[in-house]
Amino acid sequence: MRNATITASVVFLLLTTGCLRTRPTPPIPNGDYTKQMLADVTDKDLLKNYNAMPQASDDDKAKKVERRNQILNELIWLIDRHYYSFENIFYGTQAAYNVGGDFVSLGLTGVSSVAGSAHLKSILSAIATGTTGLKTSIDKNFLDQQTRSAIVQKMRALRATQLATIQDENHMKAAVADYSLEAGITDVYAYYDAGTVVAALQGIAETAGQEKQAAQKKQQENSKKLQLK
Predict the structure, then answer these.
(1) Is residue 134 part of a domain?
(2) Phi, psi at 129, each rounded to 5°
(3) How many domains does the chain have?
């Protein structure tokens, strides 16, 4: 209880003094870069102009590959900016803000009032409403944070896998005739989808299902070995 009180006090002081940071300040402001890239990829004639680029010579093809990859990299940059902001809110700050709010009120009015995400409200539904005390607030918020951690780690893994695919020999490293800009945009949007809570939950469920099947198969193999003996 003493450790919980100390932790909550530190968090509350950080919140009230405006010093809480979950990411360092970037060395170079990315606002101008983002505006330039956004203007490029939202050009209504983007695909038309790209497809009109000549590819009669090797030099033409190289320039078209470079332009294709530039567009895809700009889309990836924009997706990353939004993802990092989303993750920062979803994972990096929400539990701390919840603890700070509960510290002030010294009690909970219900799970729905403190859950940071609609996707995770059911996880907290078992917590009795109307409880009071600082330790309950600490336990509830940081247990929820562990659930968020699993989701964030899965999103990161899915994003890394999809990005590696986009950047491999059959995609961004491929010749212009082997990988169209349209196919690249489709792959980049799959990269965006990989950074969503829905995709993470689906991935976690699939992994759990695969592990269950592997365990059942192993049990069946062990049973057959025992029968043979």
Answers:
(1) no
(2) -80, 155
(3) 1
Tens-digit pLDDT profile for residues 8-29: 444 444 444 444 455 666 666 6
| 0.90 exceeded by pTM | no
Q: Where are the alpha helices (DSSP H) in the chain?
A: 2-17, 31-41, 46-51, 58-87, 94-105, 134-166, 181-194, 197-228
| Amino acid identity at 73 | N
Rounded-to-integer distance, Cα 162 and Cα 6, Å: 42
Per residue in 118-170, pLDDT tens? 443 443 343 333 333 444 454 555 556 668 888 889 999 999 999 999 999 99
Give me the residue label for tokens 């995400």: 117
> Which residue range forms the structural domain that includes residue 36?
30-104+146-228
The structure tokens 């950080």 sit at 14
